[in-house]
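Feature request disguised as a bug report, sorry. It would help if multi-protein outputs had a clear separator. Right now it looks like this:
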Amino acid sequence: MRELTYVARRTVEWREAPDPKLRSDQEAIVAPVAATSCDVDSAILAGHGFIDPPFALGHECVARVVETGDDVTAVAPGDLVVVPWSINCGACDHCRSGLTAHCTAVPHMAMYGAPIGGSWGGLFSDLVRVPYADAMLVPLPAGLDPVAMASASDNWSLSWRLVAPHLKARPRARVLVVARGSIGLYVCDIARALGASDVLYVDPDPRHREIARGYGAATAETLEPVRHGFDIAVEATGRVDQLALAVRSVAPEGICESAGNHFRPGELPLLDMYLTGVTLRVARDNVRNHIPDALELARSGQVDPARVVSHVLDWDQLPDALPEKHLKPVFVRAEG
């Protein structure tokens, strides 16, 4: 089989690898049918990552189940499934408490798309082994488009977690989104659908701001801190100066969620945060827990994640098209 491999800044190539085989009765082999780049993949391709190449890329996809072990009961060959980015067993203490990104049955941070916690390959591959199929794989609900939901492995479900629980606790909250890519746009869509009173989306890219306006958000190219302006702030830029802007805009006892990958250091206004009582979370998400709820919201028709898909491209275009600067390209492989 082929797996797409990151080899140098803005350079990827197909490399041949052995077809994966089942290693236990709990496993499955899947074939990605719609895969997309995560916002962090863009940073890796730009040379901002902290892991030296080469390694297999890709950790967001909808796939078709090809083969299952004898003990797998949740999915069957032919099913369309979401493959979560992190490897998790579903049975250890961490998994049972929802910390699926910290599963103790595998090395810490075991994941697809980067050799952290072992080498598990990437989801831009013709075939993928899923070690704990019943725990990991989530069937795609009937009626949902695999292209629109290719990001449910990570960015879409993460975006649900960034705002949905907070809006349940704080109905009609004011939401600030400081972003540069798909996560921020998904947040705009979800926040409006779940009852936010105001959503302000800040991004220098006019194309992104146009999508945000389509979701009912107000937009700005840049923003000076709005003192006590927002109940919930979401930062998804990977820039500490933008995170500082977000936390300075949060109301007393407000919440700031950081979904950016901060490869570079910076300073936060800790005294301001202390005086305001800001709750700041900076986290790689335990996304497997949230995938069913995020898919259910998509199935409800209240949101439209397909608007964020910038390009639909053929699977064989991956080496040439992935390094280009697209918002949310989805690569589709013909079946049969």
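(second protein starts here, but nothing in the output says so)
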Amino acid sequence: MIRGATAADIADSIRGLVERGHLVPGDPLPPVRSLAARQGINRNTAVAAYRRLARAGIVQAQGRAGTRIAPRSHLPQEGYAPSGALKDLGSGNPAPRFIPDPSLALGEAVGRPVLYGEPVVDANLEQWAREWMRPDTPAPPRISVTSGAVDAIERLLAQVLERGDTVGLEDPCFLASIQTVRLAGYRPSPIAVDEEGMTVAGLREALEGGARAIVCTPRAQNPTGASLSEERATQLRAVLADHPYVLVIEDDYYSLLARSPFRSIVGSAHKRWALVRSVSKFLGPDLCLALVGSDAETAERLALRLSPGTTWVSHLLQRIAYGLLSDGSSRDLIARAGLHYAERDAAAAQQLRERGVAAEQRDGMSLWVPCGAPARTVAEHLMRRGWLARTGEDFRIRAGGEPSEHLRLTVHDLEARELGELAHDLREAIDDAVREAD
């Protein structure tokens, strides 16, 4: 039984019923009018209680269908796909043979133990990162180190947002950003992406809707592969000029592998900004390290978000990262990796176009392939032919609407023969899906 006479008490009562299993996903809650009458409260109090629960992700408002307990759905993850006999095109992992051997830098990394109270960023890595990022930031950046890009974005958002605040995200979007925003209780404002990257109209709409933070991928946008043109970046900077205190996070995850130039949306007068560059795509996901260049105030707030928990990223990892990033042979291997990914994507796109699939190589580790048919149906037919692909549905922020007609395919570990087989099978899968739709 729901108890309480205030919004907070009613919300806590319903939360308790869910935790004890008396209410399960899909169960309906009383209509607002009925709840208000039963509890002897104002209707607005009941509305406020349900709003609290919705922000916490415990309930879902479904219009005329009422309010129901939210499902405990599994959110898709980057770098993960179900195990099995299928050829995996969906994980988005880098090729192991192009990841530099960390043992090459381990000897130099091992040295004097680092104790409590010492600087949290390795001095050599800090200097290297500052020189690397300075050409791409509006002012000399303060350098922070986090446990990967997801950790950086989560902590950067947390130091400026509260539950229910709005954050602008690209749509479609990087899986981890969607998960971070949903789990933190922020309200995502979808910003459409086209072949030139984040759209001006989408950014303007998000800002007019009260977004206090924007997350943008300037190049090799995941999953579409789009990179900002100079004209588009200029237009986005002009829109942001009227909102100088909105935190702008630029996720340049592909950095050293990218074939496209970096074009920032942060103008010279902008007050709150952060450039995030993870090393996971070229030094390996297990290194769990990202470099963050930001304005001084953002860096100080980020440090406060780090201090109660991890406080710092292991100096051993930082020294290994510096050793590899400053080593000529490792940088050569990273450059070859970027070229390999680009060549494999180009070869796959060519094979697909020869079979009438309008694939276009952009930048990044994967292809964003238009199918002209519901992607889930195409993916099901691909599975029957031995391929596992991600559909555009996984990367969407907007729920509902027309089914996605895109697949994201990671093809860099396929040989020429396999690329031909994939192109043939995808063409047949699309044809099967079209026939089913008819």
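Even a blank line would do. Unrelated, but nice: The longest strand covers residues 187-194.
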